[in-house]
Design brief:
Two copies of one chain form a homodimer. Chain A is an alpha/beta fold. Chain A contains 14 helices and 16 strands. Strand 16 of chain A pairs parallel with strand 13 of chain B, so a sheet runs across the interface.
């Protein structure tokens, strides 16, 4: 593993060299490397927990929140979960070498479009040390070299985890430089973000501050893990029991994540029938409600505040929900397209025309009919592990899994063809 | 069509609104619109040529090169070619609505990944007025709204062409705002490049100056049409007659384009046999040669200059070629990966192992075995018209055709599924 004595540019150049070799490593070798990493993590669990204790002890004196310290903390269960995660990635299909398209031209040339690794992927992340291992496994599986940049608060833990992964991978023939860790000040993130000659993609995993810090400076392509201002629209034709379950699930099952619902839209025709029970249940579950005038009028006694303009654009990531009443599926679509962040949007309906219109017209990564928005996730979609969710439209939209860590190239084979 | 009285931001917002409607327009309507545009261009040919004459007259007094003025000039043949181009795009398969993947989850949810338009595409271009029509046809065919930003020297021609296209499209039910033209000072390009709330992609079509001007300011995703420092490597096992034809074709067939060869690499074992004839023919065709010491020694009398370090990294786009001798296919691969721009690279060989190694290891959009690099082109690949060629790895690599003007979304259908 490249050490922090080397400059960021040197580490990235090493990674680029390693990526050239990685592009030719076969699946069996990658599987041995991943298994070796999983074994090594479990074999060195005590060391890893000691390093983590030292990080936690140092952080205890610092200016960190309890939530941050909890994310930083490892225990035996979390160490085992990391190893299990690596084995989970190991058994996924190899995304490299898939023939995505192929055809023969009139002149006899055979054209294939084949998936290939991106090259060097940099991952910038915050507290959770498990990202060190999760991201490494995804990158090696997709034959990418990885440059990790974790939180300085997790320096000892991340350093040991990266070293463990790197030497285990090397023992199976993965080139040195395939896994490296940059540890330094904040200026290292900026330096990493400008290595466009060697780094092919940056994936920042962290809060809005991290994203904002990259937006100004990155010359390397960035895929930002998305924020989600997700909606559930309950149509006039909806099965109201199912609608209530979907709304409660989308808001309550895990409120702090990007695919949780932040706004409920209800058709005017069923507002008085639907809202009193649904809002009462949400309120009993601790959800603070913000409604427009018609939602408040139809709330039937559930405590609900007047929504401000801001509420419609807010990703609460908490037990809060904006509630609006609309006159048609078209109005719901217009609301979603004005206020949504293009992540996950759901309609609950029994009307096939409204279902189709919603799916066709809503501009989002994932558009659901009669299901909770909470399914937007690499694991849930059957794609295996993911490195985040994208609301961008170029390259990756929705879960960023192994295939999204690949690009493609055209392979063209002939027998001396020249252009006329 | 939005007029230039409106601000750039307003034009882009109109385009965004139009794009919402366009996402639901069917293929038949788009075909009628494209046919109508082709008809209108031919019907208004005299007007278009008059506007073009006025532009040419005004430009004649300015500081423009003959090449620029030639690109600016329209005649009946060029007007007819524009109309024919639109009809060519019309008959291509509709890229929107293709199911790219689809599967059923264990819980019964049906997941489809479906191609959808990007939304609003801005095209910034220089002299050639035909881009106004070519780009409009590609964007409408892929259900994208287009915002055009042409050269001020072509203002009258572009204005009339855009107005012709927009009103013909509107006559067939395409929403107003689907085709607009921004005409103003250079600051308009910068303003366009920062409309990230409404513009989904910018495609600059022009020289390095245009690209550089956007690199510093664009917040909208940009796909840069590529430069190509392309190589032909002649392996020791190559059929030397075929190799000579490929090298001559790759360098001479159209030297000024991005898929023309700029460097010839030859295996040491056949350098003395191959180079004298090949270099003599290149030289006779007017090619200035720059060689390394071994190429010079093997040139056999063909005039050849000593190559500087810069030559290996230069896209001549002219009758010039760098010539190097290497000791193995691996050395050729290493040279290509160090100096290439990731565009189009060719090996000429009869050795299947070297062919495979070259295809696997060379990091480029298009990797050829026994064929000229000149085939990298949307038309040649059978993808129909293209808006440029990309050497980026994210989203579009190689020809940027209709499919690359699309993104995708996941459509998920259920019967009340919630996440456990």
């Amino acid at each position: 593993m490249a050490t922090t004595v080397a400059s960021v540019a040197d580490i990235c150049l090493e990674a680029k060299h390693a990526s050239r070799e990685l592009a030719r490593v076969d699946t069996a070798t990658k599987s041995l490397a991943l298994e070796s990493i999983a074994d090594a993590i479990q074999a060195r669990a005590e060391e890893i927990l000691e390093a983590n204790s030292a990080d936690l002890q140092a952080a205890a004196g610092g200016d960190y929140t309890t939530a941050f310290l909890d994310k930083l903390r490892l225990d035996h269960a979390r160490v085992n979960a990391m190893a299990a995660g690596v084995r989970g990635v190991m058994v996924l299909p190899d995304p490299v070498g898939e023939v995505l398209d192929g055809w023969r031209l009139a002149n006899g040339l055979d054209v294939r479009r084949v998936s290939v690794p991106l090259g060097v992927v940099a991952v910038i992340y915050e507290a959770r040390p498990n990202v060190t291992i999760d991201a490494t496994a995804l990158c090696l599986k997709s034959s990418n070299a990885i440059v990790l940049r974790g939180s300085s608060a997790a320096a000892r833990t991340n350093g040991l985890l990266a070293e463990t992964a790197s030497s285990a991978a090397r023992s199976q023939g993965i080139p040195a430089g395939a896994v490296s860790l940059v540890q330094g000040g904040h200026e290292d993130s900026a330096e990493l973000a400008t290595q466009s000659a060697t780094v092919d993609l940056i994936v920042p995993r962290g809060g809005e501050g991290l994203k904002a810090s990259l937006k100004g400076v990155a010359t390397v392509p960035v895929i930002y893990a998305a924020s989600g201002n997700c909606h559930v629209y309950v149509d006039s034709s909806a099965d109201l029991d199912s609608a209530r379950e979907i709304v409660l699930n989308a808001k309550l099952q895990r409120p702090g994540v990007c695919n949780a619902a932040e706004t409920l839209l209800v058709h005017a025709d069923i507002a008085e029938q639907f809202l009193p029970t649904a809002l009462a249940e949400l309120s009993e579950a601790g959800v603070k409600l913000h409604g427009d005038a018609r939602a408040i009028a139809a709330a039937g006694g559930a405590p609900i505040y007047e929504a401000s303009d801001e509420d419609w654009d807010t990703e609460y990531l908490a037990l809060e929900l904006a509630v609006g009443v609309v006159d048609s599926a078209e109005d719901a679509i217009a609301h979603v397209n004005s206020h949504g962040s293009g992540h996950s949007e759901a309609i609950v309906t029994s009307d096939v025309g409204n279902a189709r219109a919603f799916q066709l017209a809503v501009d989002a990564a994932c558009v659901y009919v009669n299901a909770s928005t909470r399914f937007t996730d690499g694991y849930e979609f059957g794609m295996g592990a993911e490195i985040g969710n994208s609301t961008q439209k170029l390259h990756a939209r929705g879960p960023i899994g192994l295939r999204e860590l690949c690009t493609f190239k055209y392979l063209i084979e002939g027998a001396g063809q020249i252009r006329a």
